[in-house]
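## tool: complex_structure
## caller: assistant
## args:
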Amino acid sequence: MKKASVRARLGAWALLLALLALWELASRASGVSTLVLPPPSAVMKSLWMGLSTGYLWPHIRATGLELLFGLSLGCLIGFASGVVLAESTLLQRLLKPYIVVSQVVPKLALAPLFIVWFGFGMTSTVVITALICFFPLMENTVTSLQQVDPQRLELFRMLGATRRQTLLRLKLPAGLPGILAGLRVAVVLALVGAVVGEFIGASQGLGALIIASQGMMDTPLMFAVLVVIAALGLLLYEITLAVERRLLLPYTRSS
Amino acid sequence: MSFLDIDQVSFTFPGWPPVVRSVDWRIAQGEFHCLVGRSGCGKTTLLKLAAGLLHPQAGSIRLQGRPVLAPGPQLGFVFQSPTLLEWHRVIDNVLLPVSLQHKPSADEIDKAQQLLALLGLAGHAQHYPRQLSGGQQSRVALARALILEPSLLLLDEPFAALDAITRGELQDDLLQMCRLRRTTVLFVTHDIAEAVYLGDQVAVMNRGRIVSAIRVEVQRPRAPAMRYGEAFNRHCAQVRDAMDLEAA
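## result:
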């Protein structure tokens, strides 16, 4: 079992190397301009330059901070409103249409408005990121809290549990796997939100850098930034997965 | 005065025909009564009425002379499935009824350990429910129902999902635990042999009514060998006849 997974991982790396080599050869042999499709060697060089001269770091830091703030804000509000909506049918009926409308409007179409409201820079991007993270967490929280096994609810009634105890000691722990699945979706969407938000409303950050490199016709830099974004996304996803695994240990452990 | 007194009780879910129709039943202190019937005959509803989870539209239910209005610590309930909380260790699952009231004391933790030991689970206290077999999970659910030492224990087909041998072991354990504490029991099942083996008295239910009450005159305490005895089989046949008679 373990051996097979090691082999699969090695295979994935080998495939990556083979694809990069193929790309390198193809771009050299075909003579396509570096402006259109730079070879991996040029991308790596640009990436190395950016990292070693410190040019990329402020941008990585800006995007990282926006991600962190946007994700925390969006998840916190999403989780809290999920709990409130799941606990109150009245509020759910009252507010659900508005929430759905707020989600079917593309958030990025709101970006120009946010620039008017919050100014050009970090705040607008944080707000867009938070708005994007909000929905998956809220939806998953509402669904998870409402899907608690009726027999367990009866058990808590039998034992004279208060509403607060039922929420804290039954519904939330029982819904945790679903809520964490929502978090995983939110994390991936947050990166999209932050980068695309920067396209429109920022001068700092990896998204802004992509737009800038387009203006400078520096395609290798653009690819280098894409590599950084992919690495950032992967890192975040793996962290979320590790947290999830740790929290769900008692749920999954079997003899 | 009986210990549990069900008097002319009727219950209807809105928009459906009555589920329980003017049922009269009495259980004396320390007796073990079984309620048998086909699926959908209203036996689980009657049990929930006795627990105070549902309220009758007509009639009354009294426990030791006082009307049952809401569930409370005086009664233990065991569901069809073990309904353990998989994020808590076994010992914390057993202590759940306590920890919902206050932080368990050392004495109460000791008592939970003793209960687990009595049920042969001493070594599993620190495990999670997922790590246990189905029979062991049912035992934990039983321990949880007994931790507050309820005077009345209500069980809703608790062993229905287990294999015959495990079920037999659990039946013996249940009888022993209830005899030790002189607990009064109402046990719902659709298994005739189970009802006769466990019960002092068996009530046969059909379409919301109790149609027959059969006193089980088999020697006590029960032992597995009695399952093949003449008296045991005679009672099984008697219960079966009562069920068939109504179906016809």
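## assistant note: The radius of gyration of chain A is 23 Å. Chain A touches chain B at residues 149, 151-152, 154-161, 165, 169-170, 173-174, 176, 250-255 (CB under 8 Å). Handing back to user.
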